[in-house]
Amino acid sequence: MLVLATTEREYPWGTLRSTNSSKVKVILEEKGVDYRVDRLRPGDLWKKPPELLAKHPLGKVPYLETEKDGVIWDSTVINEYLDDRYPHAGLKPDNALALAKMRMLENYGDEAFLVGDLPRIWMPWWAKPEDRDEAAMEAGREALRLRGLTYLESVVGDEYLCGSFTLADAPFMAAAMVLEVDGMDLSDFPKSAAYFERLRARNSYKAISPKTSLDDSAGSGG
Ligand SMILES: N[C@@H](CCC(=O)N[C@@H](CS)C(=O)NCC(=O)O)C(=O)O
User: Which of 2, 65, 74, 124 could form a disulfide with 35 if both were Cys (CB 3.0 to 4.6 A apart)?
Assistant: First the structure.
């Protein structure tokens, strides 16, 4: 049984999840492999206790515990590992250029969205409504409009980023989750908005949807 270590919490205003771990959860679901979720205390990501550092040398989530191969960490590495280890229903193109393009788009999702401008919108959702800095959140939305959404709008087509669904779409699943919670207006980015809706319509999105409780998203095997 694979075990995905992540941070997810139920709050009065919804179920909030680690974006990088959500990327992995989606691919575990797409692959249909048995896994269960191990939820760490969010405070451990700042305290970095020795037991966390023993699993992930940077003290971050996600990491994946496997029976065959030990611990694999970093969401991009884990997703590539899952696609290589469970090659059915492949989620990567097989020629060098298409693979490079897929990896560039996946990296763009990570850098511009998940570690770039989304945290300024997302992190405040983990605080009480009265403790949120609305001006800082709006600055995050503006940064996302100027960079990530402008670029996404220029590359996204009628399907997924590389035609069929691939690993490049995984970070954008996590972005779709954050934008669903935030309710940010995407009317200036109609192709991106439609793409996020397509992502939310996939079965795998249920495992990270803000509408799915923690009990209902503990993994297929537990
Ligand atoms: N490149 C890493 C980034 C992981 C990451 O930054 N995870 C966040 C939670 S979403 C975290 O653990 N933050 C604590 C920290 O940065 O020390 C990945 O893709 O897995």
Answer: 2
Backbone angles phi, psi at 74, to 5 degrees: 85, 120
pLDDT tens column, 89-107: 999 999 999 999 999 999 9
| Residue of 60, 61, 63 to test ligand 1 pocket, by largest number of atoms within 8 Å of CB | 60
Per domain, the residue ranges of the chain are: 2-91+211-217, 96-205
Cα(222) to centroid(ligand 1), Å: 24
Instruction: Give the CATH number of domain 96-205; options: 3.40.50.670, 1.20.1050.10, 1.10.150.120, 3.10.50.40.
Output: 1.20.1050.10
- Ligand 1 atom, smallest distance to 115 CA: 6
The CATH topology of domain 2-91+211-217 is: Glutaredoxin (3.40.30)
Determine if the pTM surpasses 0.90. Answer: yes
Report pLDDT digits (tens) over 111-131.
999 999 999 999 999 889 999
